[in-house]
Design a protein that fits this description.
Layout: E1 5-8, E2 13-17, E3 22-26, E4 32-35, H1 37-46, E5 50-51, H2 52-62, E6 63-64, H3 70-83, E7 87-90, E8 109-110, E9 116-119, H4 123-128
Parallel strand pairs: 6-8
Antiparallel strand pairs: 1-5, 1-7, 2-3, 3-4, 4-9
């Protein structure tokens, strides 16, 4: 992975942070994903755009006793997010996105390898989404018998 900056692909997804879990929907395919607690914390860093090096350096600051191989875990997790087009990887971070991301948490999170789980059970319903395919008459259109 030869990338310097990671961003959430906000034009192609919808997501919600539920505290210890993030649910992400890829709108084009209808697949949805669940991020475990470690993945959720990483996702929060990605929300404003962050360099890969900065992301790796933040892991020991927010997780209690991450294993020696945590950087590999994070890179594998990012590869999975990128494979499903949930994130964008760029060579550099534009000036307007560059921010000083610091954690204000006083207690560290127990480290577990970040994990992305993919679900397809609602894929057909999410792809249908008639609200986005309406004409000037609106939705729903009631037919008169």
């Amino acid at each position: 992975m030869d990338v310097k900056t990671v961003l959430i692909n906000s034009t192609a997804i919808s997501y919600e942070d539920f505290g210890d879990e993030v649910i992400v929907v890829y709108l084009e395919t209808g697949l949805y994903f669940s991020l475990n607690q470690s993945g959720t914390q990483i996702w929060r860093f990605l929300e404003e755009g962050i360099s890969l090096d900065e992301l790796i350096s933040k892991i020991p600051q927010v997780f209690r006793d991450p294993p020696l191989g945590f950087a590999s875990d994070v890179k594998t997790f990012l590869d999975h997010l990128h494979e499903y087009q949930l994130i964008i990887m760029k060579d550099s971070l534009s000036d307007e996105l560059a921010t000083n991301l610091t954690t204000t948490e006083t207690t560290k999170i127990v480290y577990e390898a970040p994990k992305l789980e993919c679900y397809a059970d609602m894929q057909h319903l999410l792809v249908l989404d008639p609200i986005h395919e309406v004409g000037e008459d609106g939705w729903p259109i009631v037919t008169k018998n």
